[in-house]
Amino acid sequence: MYKPLLTFLAAASIAIAALTGCSKKAEIVPGAVWTDTEGQQINAHGGGVLYHDGLYYWYGENRPQKGFTSEAGVNVYSSPDLTTWTPLGLALTVSDEPGSDIESGCIIERPKVIYNPKTGKFVMWFHLELKGQGYGPARAAVAVADRPEGPFTFVKSGRVNPGIYPENMPEEVRNSGVTIENLEWWTPRWYEAVDSGAIALRDIEGGQMARDQTVFVDDDGKAYHIYSSEDNLTLNVAELNDEYTGHTGKYVRIFPAGHNEAPAIFKHNGKYWMIASGCTGWAPNEARLMTAENIYGPWEQLPNPCVGPDAELTFKGQSNYILPVEGQPGKFIAMFDRWNPENLFDSRYVWLPIDFKEDGTPYVEWRDSWILD
Ligand code: DGJ
């Protein structure tokens, strides 16, 4: 269907729903302009959704129309039904203070918020690049708040687990001195070196790189930080402490040299499932599906979970978060970003339900529009 017409129909259906009080019947139109309750285009990219006390909170990067640095921070919206979103402003605001880790002009990406019932705090993790340093620093950053809408107070940023070896790196590799120096990328010798942990070893002293990231709270209340490390070549699964504000030192490397970005994870019927992307900058590529029975692995890679037009390009999007629908066990929404590097503000959201095959494998099928029951 013609795009402006689809956008108009989506807006009309939300308006009719609001007038008739049937807001739960509002449509989700993947890829269309999504406006908030004030009629403004939602600006919450690379984000995540938290359910707390009867409301969903959507956190995401506040992106400008031009450029790609963070001049504002992380936006938050609330919704009772996942379709109508009320803007609550900035949950985390960048700093005016020169030299601050989150100084205006830094890069804040992929913010995710989890709630810690033990401390009563909301904890936000995000990927941070320091002002003026491109994507070199590759830091993980954390901020906390007493309320879901914030304000979040910045706590710290840095590489992850400095001085600590990954749990699944054998003793003989730790002392092997394996390196990728002077090796040509993607040659068998380079692959072998990355696979065994050359880049992780290079970064032991200062800590592991952390770019695209997510956080996940397991059924037992333990939280994990999952991020693209080793120059985006390898994913790490790292345990968070009881407060969720730091790492315990326990972490594993998964899919070494797999070149995975954009990890999004969920658990269903006792199994962990992850959707990730390849590494092609802002351009879309084919999604990957991974599964494990233990969050630390072994993880197994499965074929692309996307089905339908542009499935080989993740519907022109990139995975971002997988949201369990509150009170509906087995219902999950896969959230993707359809980036527009010419105008990151206007990057679109592709939200689609996750379906399961008979053998329990999840897949995501394209729908022009759908209604959340
Ligand atoms: C792909 C990542 O997934 C995005 O979050 C962003 O970092 C872009 N790369 C930047 O090119």
Please sum up the structure shown.
This protein has about 375 residues and is mostly beta strands.
Write structural notes for this entry.
This protein has helices at 3-20, 171-174, 188-196, 198-202, and strands at 27-28, 45-52, 55-61, 73-79, 86-93, 107-116, 121-129, 139-145, 153-158, 213-217, 223-229, 234-240, 247-254, 261-268, 271-277, 288-292, 299-302, 306-307, 318-324, 332-338, 348-356, 362-365, 370-371. By secondary structure, the protein is mainly beta. The strands form 6 sheets. Strands 18-22-21-20-19 form a 5-stranded mixed β-sheet, with no helix packed on it. Strands 2-3-4-5 form a 4-stranded antiparallel β-sheet, with no helix packed on it. A 4-stranded antiparallel β-sheet has the order 6-7-8-9, with no helix packed on it. It starts with a helix and ends with a strand. Residues 1-24 have low confidence and may be disordered. The structure holds (2R,3S,4R,5S)-2-(hydroxymethyl)piperidine-3,4,5-triol.
Sheet-strand content, in percent, reads 35-45%
Sequence of strands across the biggest β-sheet: 18-22-21-20-19
Strands, total number: 23
* Weakly predicted, low-confidence segments: 1-24
**Alpha carbon gyration radius:** 20 Å
Gap from first CA to last CA? 23 Å
| Major sheet description | 5 strands, mixed
Share of helix among residues?
under 10%
Average pLDDT rating: 94
Secondary-structure element series: HEEEEEEEEEHHHEEEEEEEEEEEEEE
What count of helical segments does DSSP give?
4
